[in-house]
Design goal:
This protein is mainly α and 225 residues long. The protein is 47% helix and 10% strand. Helix 3 crosses helix 4 and helix 5 crosses helix 6. InterPro entries: EF-hand-dom_pair, EF_Hand_1_Ca_BS, Fol_N, Follistatin/Osteonectin_EGF, Kazal_dom, Kazal_dom_sf, Osteonectin_CS, SPARC/Testican_Ca-bd-dom.
Length: 225
């Protein structure tokens, strides 16, 4: 099979010609496998797609057009009304986001007590120090005042989770800057719960070059140079 090890980007599938030469063609959205309701996704065109296959197949068919360039995965789930993000809310957003990232690492560390695979040894040693200090502030819904006080008092506990999340996203390629596609796994899952995340990342891109550099990312989260 000439297509066996031939890689195509999302929205495209491999097809061999009569000479057996493989190439990538747009996936037919109508031919995508049926999906469950919870697998629906919302595109940046505010249309609900039955799944990522249908969304990226549609984007591929629009390749070369303005509509195709602008169409991305917005968030997981059917399209719905996303409330406007106020200036106050976007100012408070890093407080909750930092706490959330720290809590994710806490959960990974706890799971690694029984089974390994979530964190490597270097990550475990970093998180262990944070974990030992964490027990004084139980995970949960905290007021902005408490989160701000904790950040100022225990600043170094928050630096690694912020760096860790950037590294997790910066994979295609790993070049110390995040594209829209690299941000998508984090953004798309959080938009329905955190309506300020889109505006937050837009404002993180201080030079408006469509990339969030490591320096811009850290500045957004209040990490010192």
């Amino acid at each position: 099979d000439p297509c066996r090890n031939f890689h195509c980007k999302r929205g495209k599938v491999c097809q061999a010609d009569r000479q057996g030469k493989p190439s990538c063609i747009c996936e037919d959205p109508a031919a995508c496998p049926s999906t469950k309701d919870y697998e629906r996704v919302c595109g940046t065109d505010n249309k609900t797609y039955d799944g990522t296959c249908q969304l990226f197949g549609t984007k591929c068919q629009l390749e070369g057009t303005k509509m195709g360039r602008q169409l991305h995965l917005d968030y997981m789930g059917s399209c719905k009304h996303i409330p406007h993000c106020t200036d106050y809310e976007v100012d408070q957003f890093p407080l909750r986001m930092r706490d959330w990232l720290k809590n994710i690492l806490m959960q990974y560390y706890e799971r690694d007590q029984d089974t390994t695979g979530f964190l490597n040894e270097k990550q475990r040693s970093k998180v262990k120090k944070i974990y030992q200090n964490e027990k004084r502030l139980v995970a949960g819904n905290h007021s902005a005042e408490l989160l701000l006080h904790d950040f100022e008092k225990n600043y170094h506990m928050y630096v690694y989770p912020v760096h860790w999340q950037f590294y997790q996203l910066d994979q295609h390629p790993a070049d110390r800057s995040l594209t829209h596609s690299e941000l998508a796994p984090l953004r798309a899952s959080l938009v329905p719960m955190e309506h300020c995340i889109t505006r937050f990342f837009q404002e993180c891109d201080a030079d408006q070059d469509k990339l969030i550099a490591l320096k811009e990312w850290c500045h957004c989260f209040g990490i010192k140079e």
